[in-house]
Amino acid sequence: MSRRAAKKTAAPATRERRPARRLQGVDPRVLAGQLYELHARAERSGEQGYLERWPGDGETHGVLVFAQAHADRLTGEAYQEAALLRITLAEWLRQQADPLQLRALDDARGAGVRWDRVAVALQYVNAEGEANPSSAFNRHAALKVAVHGEPEDRRQPHVARIIEARAAQAEVHRRERERAEDARYPKLDALARALLRHVEAGKILTDPDDDFWWSELGEVVDDRRDASERANLVVYVRGAIRETASYARRSGKAPAGTEEAWRVLESAASLVELTIGEFGGSAVSDV
């Protein structure tokens, strides 16, 4: 009697307990500036002039090399703090390299470069100098996950395929959204211009201290050249209407000064799927 082969379980796509590290909110220039200050304090109490060779806060790799070469000029707490800053800067630099290498790999493969040649470029070779194309392929997959995936995604080839499927689905949704927005663009464009005319005439309430979205709408309404830009017009109209609604609630004033202005505001809110009840209070008064 033959034993039935056990069904192979699909490898997990995520790692919930140990997500990949991604630096958040790191400004390398700020960290480089902090390193410089540590060395500047050390220079004032020791050998003068070595900071004249400082590479500049924007040269992250140069800053790391310099700070490592002169690390022993620091002592105590300053030495520890500088070492920690170098750790973060080096990690930031490493993460910045991932999308650059991925693009280079994509360009090479797009130009027809074989995996064995890619492996040689990556130095994935055995003791005899023979290329290991599967390692190059896996590196490419891992980079796709690192650059385009989520922190919890495993950096494995099968996860790269999942991410590609996600990206394809997101692209389908983006195009569907653009088609839908393109279909309603003529009406939205007309309403946006009508809104701006009423604002210019003082018939739609605006916050005198914060009219960011109305200003933005006025700048972009004549600059919608392609489907993506036309689709984004809804963002500006929505933001402007919400700005008026928020100020109307805070001030207790009506959002519109005439029935016509109110109808335009109401139509625009409906078209961009906002609830007109957000305005609160009466709809029309002198503004």
Q: What secondary-structure arrangement, pairings included, does this model have?
A:
Blueprint: H1 28-44, H2 60-69, H3 76-110, H4 115-121, H5 133-148, H6 157-200, H7 212-220, H8 227-251, H9 259-271
Helix pairs in contact: 1-3, 2-3, 3-5, 4-5, 5-6, 6-8, 6-9, 7-8
Walkthrough of the structure:
- By secondary structure, the protein is an all-alpha fold.
- The chain has two domains: 28-148, no CATH class; 173-279.
- It has helices spanning 28-44, 60-69, 76-110, 115-121, 133-148, 157-200, 212-220, 227-251, 259-271.
- The chain is flat, with a radius of gyration of 29 Å.
Instruction: Please state the average pLDDT score.
Output: 84
Largest sheet: none
Helix content: 55-70%
Spans of at least 5 consecutive residues whose pLDDT stays below 50 are none
Quickly count the domains: 2
Distance between the termini: 89 Å
N-to-C SSE string, H for helix and E for strand: HHHHHHHHH
Please state the structural category: mainly alpha
Q: What is the number of beta strands? A: 0
Task: Name the shape in a single word.
Answer: flat
SS summary, helix count: 9
Our estimate of the beta-strand percent is under 5%
Q: Rg, please?
A: 29 Å
